[in-house]
Write a structure and sequence with these properties.
Length: 277
């Protein structure tokens, strides 16, 4: 973090999005220990730059790349699939990298650039081995809620729904998602997905993200929903997952293998430049 001639703080950052799930990307040494405060301030939609979170990238002396994700509310999360892909897109754009490995608090994640066109990229990410467990929640406000608990380096609870409005238990998905996300039954909170099975090859989801709220997309949420569908609803292991921000592809060859996520990422602005202007 530098200061200009008037003593004002000057930050260097990049903004990118993956299916509308948007992030700021910043070198960790820019934060000077103020990651949480910066996330709360800069991610504000009306008074800040606006983002779902900030990915802080630390480049270690041995060449290791460490990612720390801070959500819009200032909380630190284990990782983000889409956020990791945004950082990979930035390194592909700025350093012409084709393969990258990131250390995160949710485990190692490998990214491979499939294609690129200017500031837009298609990237495959290896997202670890999902852990899938059916579970019934007991919510005082609602009653019993059947779902599937999935860990893909961070926690998720997936609820299968029938209607196109994604309502469940007489509530909108946003209302129920908010209750589950902050339920005492998840002491660290959880991400919540509502999944509609369209066919053995396709599902549609809505996402209530821990520390953010409703989002247009989620990489780990896509993985979790797909894993739950494959494990409990007969979904095929190569699966298309549709969210409001766009579609992503999941490939989960076997229960004990890493799940692979493929989707787009676009650099929006960098070094004072805005894409498309």
């Amino acid at each position: 973090m530098n200061r200009d001639s008037k003593g004002e703080k000057v930050l260097s950052f990049v903004k990118a999005h993956a299916c509308g799930n948007d992030f700021l990307v910043m070198d960790d040494d820019e934060a000077r220990g103020e990651q949480a405060a910066l996330a709360r301030s800069l991610c504000q939609r009306n008074t800040g730059i606006g983002a779902d979170g900030i990915e802080f990238l630390e480049r270690r002396a041995d060449g290791t790349l460490l990612l720390r994700l801070f959500n819009a509310d200032g909380s630190e999360a284990e990782l983000s699939g889409n956020g990791t892909r945004c950082v990979a897109a930035w390194l592909a754009f700025s350093e012409q990298r084709e393969q990258m490995t990131f250390e995160t608090h949710g485990g190692e994640r490998k990214c491979r650039v499939i294609s690129g066109n200017g500031n837009k990229f298609e990237i495959e990410s290896e997202m670890g081995v999902p852990r899938v467990t059916p579970r019934v929640l007991h919510l005082p406000e609602v009653g019993d809620v059947e779902g599937v608990e999935v860990n893909v380096g961070n926690p998720h609870f997936v609820i299968f729904v029938d209607g196109e409005d994604f309502r469940s238990h007489g509530m909108s998905w946003e209302q129920l998602g908010g209750l589950i996300c902050t339920s005492p039954q998840f002491p660290q909170g959880t991400n919540v997905e509502f999944a509609q099975v369209l066919s053995p090859q396709r599902i549609a989801i809505r996402i209530f993200e821990r520390g953010v709220g409703p989002t247009t997309s989620s990489g780990t949420g896509t993985c979790a929903s797909a894993a739950a569908s494959i494990a409990t609803r007969g979904g095929e292991r190569l699966l298309m997952v549709e969210a409001p921000g766009g579609s992503q592809t999941i490939d989960w060859p076997s229960d004990d293998s890493a799940i692979r996520l493929t989707g787009s990422a676009e650099i929006i602005c960098w070094d004072g430049k805005v894409a498309g202007l």
